[in-house]
TrEMBL record:
Belongs to the sulfatase family. Residues 11-321 form the Sulfatase N-terminal domain. PANTHER family: ARYLSULFATASE FAMILY MEMBER (PTHR42693), ENDO-4-O-SULFATASE (PTHR42693:SF53). This is Sulfatase-like hydrolase/transferase. It comes from the Bacteria. Gene3D superfamilies: 3.30.1120.10, Alkaline Phosphatase, subunit A (3.40.720.10). Keywords: Calcium, Hydrolase, Metal-binding, Transferase. CDD domains: GALNS_like. SUPFAM superfamilies: Alkaline phosphatase-like. Pfam families: Sulfatase. The keyword Ribosomal protein does not apply. One of its GO terms (molecular function) is transferase activity.
Length: 458
C-alpha cells in the first residue's frame, strides 16, 4: 500500500539497532538456538529483508553511514586517525556540517531521541544532542571500552550519559537493556501525540556479553543467546506499548544490526562467508525486519539490495522533508520497494564495500566483484552463491570489466587507500582541539568482569 494513501500522516519511526548481531542470529533468519518469538512474529506481521546491508562491517563507520545516508569515506569515517573505530577521548567525530536523520526529522516537527550506543564521537561537539536528537541516554561508544579486568589496555571508566552529562561511571551492564527499554517507553509515552523518531541502539551482542539472570537460565546458546533473547524481550515491550497507546498503525518499526557477527561466542552469519571486519557478505549483510500495519502486508519478503544508507532518504520522504540538502547523499528513497511494493528496482544500482579507506568490492544486482582478498579479482553471483564460494570470473569476464569500471569511478569519488588515492567527493571529519575522555581515570575505580563463553574472546 502506498503510505501516502494510508491514514498515517508523518508516521512515528522506531529504529532498533543491535550491535554485532549476525545474519543467522534470529529465528526468522534460520537460528535454531536463539529464541526470538517477538522478532519472528514481527517478521510474520511485516517485511523480512534478505539482502539488506550496512555500509561498513564495524561499528563507527556503519553507524555514521546509517545516520547520514553516506558511504563512510564521504563523511571522513573511513579512518579515525589510523584507527578502525572511534575510541574514548579522540579529537574526531561526526562533523557538525553533516546532516543526520534526526536533524531532518526534527525539521519536520518530529520529537527525537537516541537511547543506547552512539559511537560517532564522544566530545561534546559530536554528541547526539548536537546532531538533531532532543534527548540522549546511553553509552557513547562500545561496551568494552571501559575498565575491564584482565585487559592490558586500560580505558577510563565507561560513561553513561544523559544528554551531555555523565550520570554514571561503570554502570551495571547486565541491567542496561532493561534500563534502555524503560527510557524508550518513557519517551514514547511522552511523545504519544507524535510524530516521534526513536533510535534504540542496543550494546548487545557486542563482546563482552551481559544479560539479566532470568535470560541466562533459559538460554540454549549461553550468554550470547541470553543477550539475543533479552533484546527480543525489549522489542516486545515496545510493541506492546505501541498497542496500548493505539499507535501501532501509525508507527514504522525497523529492527536491524550494525554489522555481522564476529563469528565467536555463539554468533552466526547464517552460512554467509566472512564476519565482522571483512568485506564478505558475513560482515555487511545483516537481518532487517520492518513492521507497519496497513502499509506493509503481513509475511512480505524483499530481496532487493537495500542499504542502511537508504534510511535517511526514505524516512525524510515519509516525513515530507527534503533530504538532499545541497550535499551528496549516497542512499536513495527505498519507499517504492519497501512500502508500495511497485517493483524491485532501487534508484541506487550499485553498492561499494569499503574496509576503512580501502575499496574492496562492488555489487550490482546479484553480481559481486572482489578485488580485496589477496587472491586476485573474484566474481560471485550472490543469487545462487550467497556464500561467495564459487569464483565465476573466467565465465563472465564482461561482467568483471563493467564492475571494474564502477570501481575506477568510485576511487575518483571516494578514494582508495590501497592505491594511495583520495577522492574528490570526500568531506572532512569533525575535529576539535584539546579533546579528553568524558570520565577521569582513578586507580580505585572498579573494574568490570567481562563475561564470555569462550576463553579466546577479546
Amino acid at each position: 500500500m502506498n503510505p501516502k494513501n494510508h491514514q498515517a500522516s508523518r508516521p512515528n519511526i522506531i529504529l532498533i539497532n543491535c550491535d554485532d548481531l549476525g545474519f543467522g542470529d534470529l529465528g526468522c533468519y534460520g537460528s535454531g538456538v536463539n529464541s526470538t518469538p517477538c522478532l519472528d512474529r514481527m517478521a510474520g506481521e511485516g517485511l523480512r529483508l534478505t539482502h539488506f546491508s550496512m555500509a561498513a562491517s564495524v561499528c563507527s563507520p556503519s553507524r555514521g553511514a546509517m545516520l547520514t545516508g553516506c558511504y563512510p569515506p564521504r563523511i571522513g569515517f573511513g579512518s579515525f586517525d589510523d584507527r578502525p573505530v572511534l575510541f574514548p577521548g579522540q579529537p574526531v567525530g561526526l562533523s557538525p556540517d553533516e546532516t543526520s536523520i534526526a536533524t531532518l526529522l526534527k525539521r519536520a516537527g518530529y520529537a527525537t531521541s537516541l537511547v543506547g550506543k552512539w559511537h560517532c564521537g564522544d566530545q561534546p561537539e559530536f554528541l547526539p544532542t548536537r546532531h538533531g536528537f532532543d534527548h540522549y541516554y546511553g553509552l557513547p561508544y562500545s561496551n568494552d571500552m571501559g575498565r575491564q579486568a584482565g585487559r592490558e589496555v586500560d580505558f577510563p571508566p565507561l560513561p553513561l550519559l544523559r544528554d551531555e552529562e555523565v550520570i554514571e561511571a561503570q554502570p551495571d551492564q547486565a541491567s542496561l537493556i532493561e534500563r534502555y527499554t524503560e527510557e524508550a517507553v518513557r519517551f514514547i509515552r511522552a511523545e504519544r501525540d507524535g510524530p516521534f523518531f526513536l533510535y534504540l541502539a542496543h550494546m548487545q551482542v557486542h563482546l563482552p556479553l551481559f544479560a539479566p539472570e532470568r535470560f541466562m537460565k533459559q538460554s540454549r546458546n549461553g550468554r550470547y543467546g541470553a543477550a539475543v533473547e533479552c533484546v527480543d524481550w525489549s522489542t516486545e515491550v515496545l510493541l506492546w506499548e505501541l498497542e496500548r497507546l493505539g499507535l501501532t498503525e501509525n508507527t514504522l518499526v525497523i529492527f536491524t544490526s550494525d554489522n555481522g557477527s564476529n563469528g565467536r561466542n555463539g554468533g552466526s552469519n547464517g552460512g554467509l562467508r566472512g564476519s565482522k571486519g571483512s568485506a564478505w557478505e558475513g560482515g555487511f549483510r545483516v537481518p532487517c525486519v520492518m513492521r507497519w500495519p496497513g502499509v506493509i502486508a503481513p509475511g512480505e519478503e524483499c530481496d532487493a539490495p537495500v542499504s542502511a544508507m537508504d534510511f535517511l532518504p526514505t524516512f525524510a520522504s515519509l516525513a515530507g522533508v527534503d533530504w538532499r540538502c545541497g550535499r551528496r547523499i549516497d542512499g536513495c528513497d527505498a519507499g517504492g520497494v519497501l512500502f508500495e511494493r511497485t517493483g524491485t528496482e532501487l534508484e541506487r544500482t550499485e553498492m561499494f564495500y569499503y574496509l576503512g579507506e580501502e575499496l574492496c568490492a562492488v555489487r550490482r544486482g546479484n553480481w559481486k566483484y572482489h578485488v580485496w582478498n589477496g587472491n586476485g579479482p573474484e566474481l560471485f553471483e550472490l543469487g545462487t552463491d550467497p556464500g561467495e564460494s564459487c569464483n565465476v570470473l573466467l565465465d563472465h569476464p564482461e561482467v568483471a570489466r563493467e564492475l571494474e569500471e564502477l570501481l575506477t569511478a568510485c576511487r575518483c569519488d571516494l578514494g582508495d587507500s590501497s592505491m594511495g588515492m583520495r577522492g574528490d567527493g570526500v568531506r572532512p571529519i569533525g575535529r576539535v582541539n584539546e579533546a579528553k575522555p568524558l570520565t577521569e581515570f582513578h586507580p580505585d575505580c572498579p573494574y568490570f568482569e567481562a563475561e564470555y563463553d569462550l576463553s579466546d574472546a577479546e
